[in-house]
Amino acid sequence: MRVATWNDPHSSFPADAERLGVDSLWSPEAWGFDAFTPLAYAAAQTSTVRLGTAIAQIGARTPAMLAMTALSMQALSRGRFILGLGTSGPQVMEGWHGVTFDRPIQRTRETIETVRAICAGEKVGKIRSPIAQHVPIYVASLGPANLRLTGELADGWIGNSFVPEHAEVFFAPMREAGRFDELDITVAVGLEITDDETVGRRHARGYAFTFGAMGSPTQNFYVDAFARQGFEDDVRAVQRLWLDGRREEAADRVPEEIGFKTNLLGPPQMIKERLRAYRDCGVTTLRVGLPAERDLDSLAQLIDLVHEVDSE
To answer: How confident is the model over 200-251, as pLDDT tens digits?
Structure first.
């Protein structure tokens, strides 16, 4: 497995992570920093590490602008850029960007096809880009229809809300296109190497916001993803408590199991067991959220553990 992590735009972290052997740096985009500018900064500090957006929001830019930005990033990074795309959700798109959130699958397909055409130097409308460069496209997807589209069109998957023991919930729809073995399967995990027995509970409590606030009462992609993995009663109870304003109760209601099974938590031996679960189910890249910014010691220790598991 490859180790990836988040880009910190304020420090020398990109160069330090590259030195440790990190495969790729990923820059998120919600409603603060954009996803591209930090990666341009990282590109100037590094020479080998790959640089990806996780994710650039479909709907926030036209497909042509996404393609232009991706081509710029590919040139600046000398071929190391990955365009990670996702639809985000109605809270961000309508509440922050002020654009309608609708037809997410169709929009994703049309965006990928247009970006690919522009990057290939094909004529789009009446104009042809003077620049042609290959840009890998990864897709963040959780629902079955979007997962099928990922398997059909993408070069990689940007996964989250993922429990390795239930991997086929996500992988089966992607397999339908017959290209699953060609995909880079990347999954987000938090990391905390510790003997603290409360670590799973602490990480589980953080999901209350995800289940309660990152969606509407009728549409929450994260709730649905965990429901399909066997946690339906739990996550819908958390969502109800949050929406009723009972936020501490909601946090207490998240099963500790979710904290442990979606992250790398605990002492080294426990983390090695979880690394084996990710490896054995078919994950190829772990996108690691560090316990603190620039925590190079934890990152180095994790890389060593990954090497040990891969050599077994």
So the answer is: 999 999 999 999 998 888 889 999 999 999 999 999 999 999 999 999 999 9
pLDDT in tens, 165-196: 999 999 999 999 999 999 999 999 999 999 99
Q: Which of 38, 91, 48, 75 is nearest to 210 (CA)?
A: 91
- Fold classification of 2-194+263-310 is TIM Barrel (3.20.20)
Q: What angle in degrees, to the nearest 10, is found between the helix axes of 144-153 and 168-175? A: 50
Secondary structure letter of residue 7 according to DSSP = -
Residue 304 tokens read as: 């060593």
Who contacts 92 (Cβ-Cβ below 8 Å, separation ≥6)? Answer: 30, 31, 57
Token digits of residue 213: 């606030």
Predicted model pTM: 0.94
Question: In angstroms, rounded to a whole number, what is the distance separating the alpha carbons of residues 240 and 246?
Answer: 9
Q: Which residue has the tokens 């990347």?
A: 186
Please tell me the distance from the alpha carbon of residue 172 to that of residue 93, in angstroms, as a whole number.
29
264 to 151, 184, 199, 238, 277: CA distances (angstroms): 26, 20, 10, 23, 11
Alpha helices in the chain (DSSP H): 13-20, 37-45, 63-76, 90-92, 104-119, 144-153, 168-175, 199-205, 207-213, 221-226, 232-243, 247-253, 256-261, 268-281, 296-310
Identify the helix (H) or strand (E) that includes residue 99: none
Tell me the C-alpha distance between 58 and 56, whole Å: 6
